[in-house]
Batch of 2 targets.
Target 1
Amino acid sequence: MKFKKKQATTKQGIPTASLPDIIFMLLIFFMLTTVLREFDVQVEYTLPEAYMIERIDNKRLVSYIWVGRDGRIQIDDNIVRVGDISSIMYQKRTEIPNLIVSMRIDQHSEMGVVTDIQQQLREADALRINYSTLHRL
Amino acid sequence: MLKRKKKEGATIPLAGMADIAFLLLIFFLLVTTIDVDTGIGLVLPPPVDEAEEIEVKEENLANILVNAAGEVLLDGEIIGVPQISSTIADKIRGNPELIVSVKTDRRTPYNVYIDTIDQLKMAYNELREEYARQSFGVRLQDVTREQLDQIRQAIPQRISLAEPE
């Protein structure tokens, strides 16, 4: 007697017709969450560390100022002078009124340059700032 | 029969659609940065000419001076950086109206300044934690948005950056 393997009559195989839809859904998610602005950082810096850090939820509001260990200041893709910061930031603030300025300053900088930048920011009325720090464990 | 079928078959092949979508997906996966910005948030005082001079009573002010050598002086006395948070928290418990004024020298190291601000934030966090536990019986990280607003109103962060000379 020959044994016959029992086999379901239904077709095996996963239906792939809706695969593109799933992929598109993922795609749309990533497209919406991506912020394409990336900068070439031309200054060298190491961030200080702190315990009580908070995160900036809305990356679109953030504008960065880098200060390297050699004291050079970079905004967007340009090295700028301290005196130019207020006009640059004023212009940015007209585009984004609730701008957050994230300051990525080298930990061994002196406060002189920080104070100068802060005075410039106050002149430009960009008052929400954030000292970028790493989380100290 | 056959002829009719051929006419109907004028459809776009959909098999490659998934591949195209995958390609785009991989591109966006690669360019997306998941890392979040972390840091210490602060609000600067408005420019001098706009701000009206506010008289602050001497007893409502705690002066912190970080000098060029990286030493921290609280009301004229040297204090170790890790002690700042508990000292300031005690002071605020004694006087809820206290404003902490932070002053730096031009040659103060930036990381000492950050440590100091961090300690102040820690002091306020400690007080808010206490308030949350007393008023709502929950930890600070578990409060609702309304409760958080109430806590923020009850214990505002009064950190003032002193005008540089």
Target 2
Amino acid sequence: MIANYGYKDGSGEYFISVDTEKCTGCGDCVEACPYGVFEVVEDPMDPLSDDQVAIVTEAERKKIKYTCGPCKPVSDRPPLPCVAACLEHAISHSW
Amino acid sequence: MAEDTTSKDYWRWTESNWHDPDMDWREGDIISAGVDVGSVSSQTVIMVDGKLYAYSNMRTGSDSPKSAENAMDWALEGTGMTLDDIHYAVGTGYGRVNVPFAKRAITEIACHARGANFMYGPTIKTVLDMGGQDCKAIRVDQKGKVVSFLMNDKCAAGTGRGMEVFADLLGVHITKVGEMSLQVDEEPPMVSSTCVVFAKSEASALLREGWPKEKVLAAYCLAMAHRVVGLLERLGIEEDFAITGGIAKNIGIVSRVEKELGIKALKPSLDTQIAGAIGGALFATALLKKERKKK
């Protein structure tokens, strides 16, 4: 499953996507993110499974444009810590 | 002098309850319930062995636990069933953690996917849920499992709440908005503001310019449809496609979404507002089966 967390507003689209097929629930992204955007829980979109997956916390979903801002300078953008930390390439950003 | 307030409640949509008089729930092995406490409306669906038995659909009050209880009581009305007869209840929606009698809370995205699969059958692939306070685009597989989803709950554009604001501004009853918006010879340019608050100011200006109500509603419905199509396109659309939630009852939005996408939405066989609660009740059935198997 591709879980898109975030929102679209007048200024653009801000979504962090997690591919739950690839996510192993290892939690490397949780440790890599300096702002606590991720957590690992039982997949909330699949209540009948016990698999652990990374999700974007409820509190961050409506403000990721701002929370993720410091990791996204306008020029010379280094690899995002969350994306780089995920060895399964399960995380991507829309902006 | 007493003022007649009811005639001014333009936002007030029709509440309803129903139960199947031909079904004897006492013969059922599994009685499950799904309670969807949304931001605007609350629904309870009761299922007997995975078959729809009863439901209610009413307005959410300021107190979420009370709203859940009210919706449950109304669904049980006239059935002879009591809360104690229900083996497993699942809470979903915005107020899902506040359903006092629910054994488990499940996100509304999972429930809507499952509910749409029940309502429209296994061919359903894309679901657009236009709720009271958010809008969700969900891709599902033939079993009703979520394949991908995208939700917008940061702003009221594309939601029932946005439509209520316009019904109120124009003094048109919410159930008449859709039809009225189609009574224009040609589509006006859409309201340009995304935000409902600014869209309302824009509409006030259009009314001052002398636009008839129909034209203003058309401009707003067009903008709302365009907005949700943007969400759908981001996710990708595959037929069959259906719209759930309260706005699915608004022909002015449904027809414009269909037109912009170039595909038709499936016609609902049940009240589109109960999709989430249906999903909840189906999960309750499945979870109880899982629990019994373990014992």
